[in-house]
């Protein structure tokens, strides 16, 4: 079972998170790849793909993911599992919090992928998000905020990675 992590990151925060998630897998994931330099066909190297995407510019995909978005068309992710982690800012952008996770998931869903790693919305304060599933009770994946404490980040990653380990089989 091959496990890959791929992220897009404009100011480096999602990249940092990708490496923290990689560490939490304790050797069972390959080193994170930046989608900026990873062609779409390399995303098919993995049975399980953990995807990091920040939301930018009022509900838009981060720019490197935006470039890959059209290129994904025509590739099949049938039989593959995908998990998402997102980075956003609910205080400044409460009406577009974590939209990018939802935009990207719906693309992968249309290509046949199965979603794992959904994350409850209950401890977050925001108004609207395109990154929701299950009638708004869950985010598509693990949602981070720029101002989260290190302790909260580490705790959420530990919980989420344990959940992924259960759901990836
Ligand atoms: C101009 C600008 C627009 C943003 N728009 C959103 C947004 O619509 N929704 C959201 O949740 N976060 C938004 N953010 C917050 C970013 O997602 C957050 O800073 C993130 O950590 C950036 O990740 P990166 O460093 O990996 O690019 C925005 C930030 C900036 C500077």
Shape type: globular
Q: What's the helix count?
A: 4
Q: Give the oligomeric state.
A: single chain
Bound molecules: flavin mononucleotide
CATH fold topology? Rossmann fold
Number of domains: 1
Query: Main sheet?
Result: 7 strands, mixed
Mean pLDDT: 97
- The CATH class assignment is Alpha Beta
Give the secondary structure arrangement, pairings included:
Elements: E1 3-7, H1 13-24, E2 33-34, E3 48-56, E4 60-61, H2 63-71, E5 81-88, H3 99-110, E6 114-115, E7 119-120, E8 132-133, E9 138-139, E10 142-145, H4 150-167
Parallel strand pairs: 1-2, 1-3, 3-5, 5-6, 5-10
Antiparallel strand pairs: 3-4, 7-9, 8-9
Bound molecules: flavin mononucleotide.
Q: What are the key terms here?
A:
Rossmann fold; alpha/beta; 10 strands; three-stranded antiparallel beta sheet; globular; binds flavin mononucleotide; about 170 residues
Question: How would you sum up this structure, described in words?
Answer:
The protein has 169 residues and is of the alpha/beta class. It has one domain (3-167): Rossmann fold (3-Layer(aba) Sandwich). The chain has helices spanning 13-24, 63-71, 99-110, 150-167; strands at 3-7, 33-34, 48-56, 60-61, 81-88, 114-115, 119-120, 132-133, 138-139, 142-145. The strands form two sheets. Strands 1, 2, 3, 4, 5, 6 and 10 form a seven-stranded mixed beta sheet that branches. A hairpin with a 3-residue loop joins strand 3 (48-56) and strand 4. The protein is globular. The termini are close together. The structure holds flavin mononucleotide. Flavin mononucleotide is lined by residues 9-14, 54-59, 62, 87-89, 93, 96-99, 146.
